[in-house]
Amino acid sequence: MILVTGGAGYIGSHAVLELLLAGHDVLVLDNLCNSSRIALQRVEQLAGRTLHFVKGDIRRRAQLDALFAQYPIEAVLHFAGLKAVGESVRHPLNYYDNNVGGSLTLCQAMADAGVFRLVFSSSATVYGTPATVPINEQAATGLPTNPYGQSKLMVENLLRDLANADPRWSIALLRYFNPIGAHESGLIGEDPCGIPNNLLPYITQVAIGRLEQLNVYGADYPTPDGTGIRDYIHVVDLAKGHLLALEKLRQVKGAHIWNLGTGQGHSVLELIRVFEEITQTRLPYRLAPRREGDIAACWADPTKAERELGWKAERGLTAMIADAWRWQVQNPSGYRVTDRVKESIKRIPASPISGNIQREAVMTRTGTSSANALL
Ligand code: NAD
Ligand code: UDP
């Protein structure tokens, strides 16, 4: 059985689905501070299998000990953490507590339970401002400019020290580039709280009319069209990378870094153009000043992951954007159920139905009591 911390979240839910499809038994531990139980019900529906879910916190040692005692856990995929850069600047203690303190407690509980296989969600943010692109794993880590980035680097260092000190550990430090997109079913996807910070969720929310217009942060970067370049990676490709890392860790000891990116950079204007083509709409946007802390260009050299894990991103930008858009259209309020949808739930007849809002309502209506508690 694989323990997945943060498995109800955006990336975790896609990884849980892949684990179930590959035949693994899965236990999700999530405090639902940034996610919904509904995501896991949809994962079960897509997989045609059930999973174990415990609402709980990686910072609670007694709870972790109880889980390791109760379930035959062989390895851990560790997604749980807080991830909003701006919020981390305002509330650094929360970030160090959740991300660093939580990871430390998790490792202590794993060691005491004799579980030494761990896949950690790191980020390309640990490279800081890259000296050259593409970035390979040999590149020096930078000085993250915010507590979120610091917390990722601190956990990486903690895990490296741990693997150096105790040869029983097998640890993957997966450095994600820019995960976007959603499962092609449109049933699970990214559901940011409040106004999104990231580019694609912002674009899709402008397009459905929840936000007025996109600010393109900086059109004077030293890039071909002046806007920032990133390596966007489809969340399903990313999820699959975790399964291969998990398998690889059966054969190798120590801590190993793998970049998970496509190796292709795309600018903000390019994303807008592809989005407009797919949706056949015009996206309202304006060129705005640079956002503080942003870098001009960042994309991965993913060849180490291909060579060592046999992993390669398969989905291109068009699929990423089309899938994100399908998710947004089918779930205009994400996993939250709006008053409008609640009304439609009351009115849903027993006969077959169609339409996106109704579909969302029915999905929720068939959920378990914890999902209904969210209504
Ligand atoms: P997410 O917020 O959707 O998922 C994180 C999950 O962890 C949520 O379900 C949340 O409820 C849970 N959680 C938070 N603190 C917890 C705690 N103390 N105990 C138990 N559960 C807790 O975020 P995501 O985008 O799926 O990111 C997953 C991981 O990947 C995070 O560690 C994040 O830092 C990392 N990462 C994300 C990105 C990105 O762009 N999304 C990029 C690089 C790295
Ligand atoms: N970006 C933008 N407008 C937004 C959000 C992001 O122009 O509302 C740009 C940002 O400057 C960067 C790119 O889009 O060049 C990706 O930003 P995101 O926040 O998604 O990822 P990160 O900066 O963490 O790589």
UniProtKB/TrEMBL annotation:
InterPro entries: Epimerase_deHydtase, NAD(P)-bd_dom_sf, UDP_G4E
Keyword set, alphabetical order: Carbohydrate metabolism, Galactose metabolism, Isomerase, NAD
Keyword NAD: yes
Example GO molecular function: UDP-glucose 4-epimerase activity
EC class (word): isomerase
Pathway(s) per entry: Carbohydrate metabolism; galactose metabolism
E.C. number(s) listed in UniProt: 5.1.3.2
Domain NAD-dependent epimerase/dehydratase: 2-261
GO biological process entries: galactose metabolic process
Cofactor(s) named in the record: NAD(+)
GO CC, any one term: cytosol
Reactions catalysed, as given in the entry: UDP-alpha-D-glucose = UDP-alpha-D-galactose
Membership in a protein family: Belongs to the NAD(P)-dependent epimerase/dehydratase family.
Assembly, per entry: Homodimer.
Protein name: UDP-glucose 4-epimerase
Protein's organism: Pseudomonas duriflava
